[in-house]
Design goal:
Blueprint (H helix, E strand, L loop, with lengths): L1 E3 L3 H13 L15 E9 H12 L3 E4 L8 E3 H15 L4 H15 L7 E3 L5 E8 L2 H9 L4 E6 L2 E6 L8 E6 L5 H9 L38 E7 H12 L3 E8 L9 E8 L6
Parallel strand pairs: 3-8, 3-11
Antiparallel strand pairs: 1-12, 2-6, 4-5, 7-8, 9-10, 11-12
Helix pairs in contact: 3-4, 6-7
């Protein structure tokens, strides 16, 4: 997956989000006759989406629920109130060490450490889910979660149940041959709340074939067919853009921003190639 952004602070957040996107669940999909089965163990929902894509080779697009201001707190406050006291009593775990390290380094360099961090880990699910169809599997996977799903043309989309940031109207002409990266940027630039202001920084990696070679043209560089979008929602516009780039492209939208520098959060989009069934 490649993420389209420019601001360095946002890039840091996107990189951290990609770290948690490592497929940490257990249990592979099982191929009983007409049954789709997958198991999760304390998986973040973004991992759930990645697992579903990988196991069933399905175009599944995803908008992550935006963080609330209450999900952030001062890194210096957390270290001062929690981690330094804990370190005096026991050995810190790896996650706690990762929080303590940047503050220690900032202190050693005489730099302020009053950075805000996302303290909410996000929604996780565990259990085994089965369905005779992908639609039934999505029903069961999203039931009781902060997410719901729907179909846009032939594309499955998972969105926050409380409401999507991608409801703003989009009217834009996208010329044939425009790259998918540019098309997605043109769509997010229409966001009236926090429009996209740049594109280009790459994060993550493209899917590779079994021999380790990159698979064809990266998703960001895929040319799209000509699109004329007139007053459609952003979510529909994004779906039509990936559909115009080929049957194996999808999108993910994250909300990246911090209350002291950029609020409400700016939308950050990533595009990737849908795994093939034999990969």
């Amino acid at each position: 997956m490649r993420f389209i952004l420019r601001n360095s602070g946002v890039a840091m957040i996107a990189a951290l989000l990609l770290v948690v996107c490592v497929l940490q669940g257990y249990g592979a999909a099982q191929s009983e006759e007409g049954i789709h089965t997958i198991a999760f163990k304390d998986d973040l929902f973004v991992n759930v989406v990645l697992r579903l894509r990988a196991q069933f080779a399905v175009r599944l697009c995803y908008e992550e629920q935006a963080p609330r201001e209450s999900d952030f707190q001062s890194l210096a406050d957390e270290v001062r109130d929690n981690l330094t006291q804990a370190q005096a009593q026991r050995v810190l775990n790896d996650y706690e060490k990762s929080r303590l390290r940047p503050v220690t380094e900032s202190h050693d360099r005489g730099m302020p450490a009053e950075k805000l961090i996302l303290t909410s880990r996000g929604y996780c699910i565990s259990g085994e889910f089965s369905g005779k169809t992908i639609e039934e599997l999505l029903d069961k996977t999203t039931a009781g979660s902060p997410y719901t799903w729907f179909m846009s043309n032939g594309t499955y989309v998972i969105l926050p149940r409380v409401g999507s940031r991608l409801t703003f109207p989009v009217s834009v002409d996208i010329d044939e041959g425009t790259t998918l990266e540019d098309a997605v940027y043109m769509i997010l630039a229409k966001d009236p709340v926090a429009p996209a202001t740049g594109k280009g920084v790459r994060a993550g990696s493209e899917l590779r074939s079994k021999d380790g070679a990159p698979r064809e043209v990266p998703a960001t560089e895929r040319p799209v067919a000509r699109l004329t979008l007139k007053n459609v929602t952003a979510v529909e516009a994004l779906c039509r853009a990936v559909e115009a780039a080929g049957p194996d492209c999808d999108w993910t939208v994250l909300a990246a921003g911090m209350p002291d520098t950029e609020w409400p959060p700016r939308l950050v989009a990533g595009v990737s190639l849908v795994p093939r069934a034999n990969e």
